Amino acid sequence: MPLSFVRLIPGDTHFRFVRLRKIAFAASIVALLGAVAAFTVLGINLGIDFKGGGNIEIKTQEAADIKKINDVVRGLGLGEVEVREFGSPTEVLIRFERQETNDPEVNEERLQQQAAHNVHEALYAAFSDLEFSFDGDKSGTVVSGSDLDLEKGQKALQSLDVEGLTLEAGVDAKTLVLTLPKVVVDRKSGPELQQQVYDQARYKLLETYSTLVSQRTDIVGPKVSGELVQSGIIAVLGALFCMMLYIWFRFEWQFSVGAVIALAHDVTLTIGMFALTRIEFNLASIAAILTIVGYSMNDTVVVYDRIREKLRMFKKMEMGDLIDLAINKTLARTSITSVTTLLALVPLYLYGGEALRGFAITMIWGVLVGTYSSIFIAAPLLMVFGINREALDGE
Amino acid sequence: MLHFSRLKQISIWFVIALGLLFALPNFLPEDIRGTEDKRGSLPSFMPNKTVNLGLDLQGGSYLLLEVNTDSVRLNKMEATQEESRQLLRSERPIIPARNFRIHDKTVTFNLARPEQMEMALERLKPLNEVAGGQLAIGGNTDRTFVIKSDAASGRISLTITDAALTRLNRDAVVRSVEVIRNRITELGTKDPTILRQGNSRIIVEVPGESDPVRIKRIIEKTAQMTFHMVNTKVTIAEALTGRIPPGAKLVKSSNPAEPDLLVDRRILVDGADLIDAQQTFNQEGQPAVTFTFNSRGSLQFGKATSENIGRRFAILLDDESITAPVIRGPIIGGTGLIDGSFTVETANDLAILMRAGSLPAKLETLNERSVGASMGDEAVKAGAISLMIGFGAVMIYMLLCYGRFGLFANAALLVNLTLILGALSGLQATLTLPGIAGVILTIGMAVDANVLIFERIREEIAIGRTPMNAVETGFAKARSTILDANITTLIAAVLLLLFGSGPVQGFGVTLAIGIFTSVFTAFLFSRLLTSYWIMRAKPKTISL
Questions:
Q1: Are A94 and A56 spatial neighbours (Cβ–Cβ below 8 Å)?
Q2: Which end of chain B, N or C, is less surrounded by CB atoms within 10 Å?
Q3: In Å, how far is B417's CA from the nearest CA of chain A?
């Protein structure tokens, strides 16, 4: 069965990678400096996971009027606010930064939740045409420009679990009458202020009759965001350290230092990419970076493994030729694996939805950088450190 | 390397069959698979669990709450201050003390007459015993307080130990979890998860409930327990006909078998003033419940009981009477005993209710995430589409690259996916959105092991080995590389599991599972397939 297989790389290549090392090192150093500069000057677009604050994703019925939403949200005085289309014209992401206060009496955790509540309420109000009036005690009315579905509103109020709170039809189909119980006694908590109950009922009704749906809300308080930064850093550094130990244990120190330098190179360039592209850096980004570390290490180990094997096989071969031989021998594998990984990642980028897009881009970038660094950085670095061939033989 | 003993072959097929068995329920309709409460028509030896979707995929709310440990400590210190004051007055001669102060973890006061020090210390002893006993959740009998005294000035200081404080906090968290669970269950949502995390945190996950406002409302309430006098101006029968005296109300009993009760509207004592309740035994050895009030509660309760000996009072929880015992004598000192027709179990239940009725401390929401159900559906669909396209692309590519061997690799990939699905279902690990990304990534990386092997075989053929020999050497030489490469990736996955939170942990889970299944499928399964082919076809040459 003669079959001609697709080969990206011919089986027998003789590229002189080591000879290119000076150019590669120089290019990498320039890129690294660029990444560091970008990081220092631009900073990275930290998501709420690490900074605190809130993300609110909404869906509108027709193409969203970003300007209107922007105006409504900015009117709330929440400081820096970002409003942008998210995935499709009917979906919008609203991001507000951590709400801060100097007043020690005010609970900062609660402040974030209040902010999210205000955003929701303001948007629901902007995307419905309800007019409310309340006598401050027992009754209020809701008037709309169009007919209101009474049952829908009643159902929504039921979920508040307040006994005696009722919604009934008003003078016409566009009007509803809200009645509060004489004394509002929550089944669980005892008396509550009339105004509080009214506010809750108003919020529920706005939500129910609004043309806008809240899809996803993430609120991260200051305490948790601080911890997430910490555990993210620990995870990445811990991974680098454990891998270094493992490689040291399996190979020689030169290999382990070379591998970790290559990994640090990949991580730095990835952070540089975050700085330049302004992709939001969130929890998933930490996962992406750790996976890049794993992937790049994988590539490096394959090349190193082959170098070690050739070192044992050809005792007299010059180091540079030997490294070239090892890289060339593994080149087909390196490229095929990169292609299969990219083949899996590109659909994720294209069809995986907005939430995974940032993750997919990061990984695609990481696969490219990781493949480059295994060939042009990790392996040639062994030339720089020099290898004690006898020590390797001893194992 | 190509020879497999019968046992080995059977084991490999067994693992695959097991994976298939565990993955199967995901493809069955619910009436066959059954639900949580009711098994479907599947035979009982078969697993029936489907993949556990994370909140980001099925919609719902996630809350991370923290018990305010400051308020727990402050409550305890206030209670201690009151308790010591009362202990000093509990017998004659009364030991007067003043200058009660609470500072951080310490209560200090001065005896009016320093010469009473010895007697005072003797009387304060129960503080350690009682408190230690009450907190003995883990059977702990450590001291609660370090008591220091200065005989010259008559100054006594009670400092709560760190161990006792930790115990208190943990107790508060455990109780909060209990209360929150009770309340959320009442919401009628399906399988809420309420978990304790660390010493002071609680995770609440409510699938399908995308309105955290409602959940928070319920969680943040402190349940209402009140003590009332039973009204005897009219009989129950009369009251039931509508003749309710002014200032009284009819309440239902929490036990449907008991008749309704007529009680005074006036609240004698509020349950918020309860500090503790425990199941115990009365003097006749009958099961009973002791409870402890704080200073305000004990004052009010003492007054009410001394004025109403022989009458009944009722304890209402959420306006339902739990019990209505007869007052045998004045209950002063803030500690009372409820006895009646209890069994140990019902007494314990009441104690739990009294304790757990209200939240023991304030709760703060640190992190809140909610996802609408439609959103979750879209995410699952998007994930499934990208998975299928990626999967297809990789399979086609492998086929183009390696022909027959590509077919083996693809079979291994299919088995791999099945095993991942089976492992996720069997372990009931949670599949999150990043978790799906993890699976997709695994697909891309899983073939790596096969690529390593096949490239190795190519090399061995190139140097002129016979087919059999080349395949054999290829597998052997690739082995250590595959292990090294996967162990390093596993390190990354484990760190994600340890330090990641929520969705990211889900990514770590799928990545880790994927590594194990990839090594298994590449190293055992595709080798087995290769071996079957070589044994049967005995090829003279291998096209690779």
A1: yes
A2: N
A3: 14
